[in-house]
Amino acid sequence: MPIPGPGHNSNAFPEAGFATRTVAWRQAKASQKTPSPQVVKMMLARAKELGISYADYASLVRTGGRDIGAFLFTPEGLRLKLGRRLEMPEPVRAKLSQVQACRLLALAPDAERPEDYLEELREVSGLPFTHAAPTPLGDGWSRIRAALHPTFSGLPPQAVALIGAKERDFRLVAAASLAGMVGPEALFGA
Q: Are 181 and 164 in contact (CB under 8 A)?
């Protein structure tokens, strides 16, 4: 019999059928601590600083295991209108100008140089976007990580939340080990 790989339950449940896994999952969920009122109050304040709901913030923190230090935006996540010149809707610019203690990062559209995109994005928005990376959609997971991680400039990937609008963006979250993804409506409204 082959040796179990990393993440295997090491025969803790030798007959681990569906019912056994269900019981184990319920026990694990029940054993999770409920945050104290002081922690909830701090998390509510941080969610407000970031401009997202408490539920979205708590979900990202649970997934990543740490506070959000950056938002990584796809062009769709910024609701940009791509044409000869970028156009950012005023409500999006106004909302992002209120975000506190969080870096603004961007993914450049296909076939656009990240440096040029970053410069134009700063000019159009008047916001301090710090880095831009190419959108590595067709690459393997190791190439996605290699393309995105330098963009975080010292932040762990679990502290970066992707703001995206397409199903394909979930691949970036998984490959780069990001905190998670929320749609632009979570940040900017409907």
A: yes
User: For 45-49, 51-55, 182-186, which range has the lowest pLDDT when averaged over its residues?
Assistant: 182-186
**Domains along the chain?**
37-187 (3.40.50.1000)
Return the bridge partners of 190, or none. Answer: none
Look at residue 45 and give its three-state secondary structure: helix
Q: Calculate the average pLDDT of the chain.
A: 83
**Exposed, middle or buried by CB within 10 Å (0-12, 13-18, 19+), for 179?**
buried
Q: What is the pLDDT of residue 170?
A: 83
DSSP state of 106: E
* Interatomic CA distance for residues 184 and 187, integer angstroms: 5
25 vs 171, more confident: 171
- Report the amino acid identity of residue 56: D
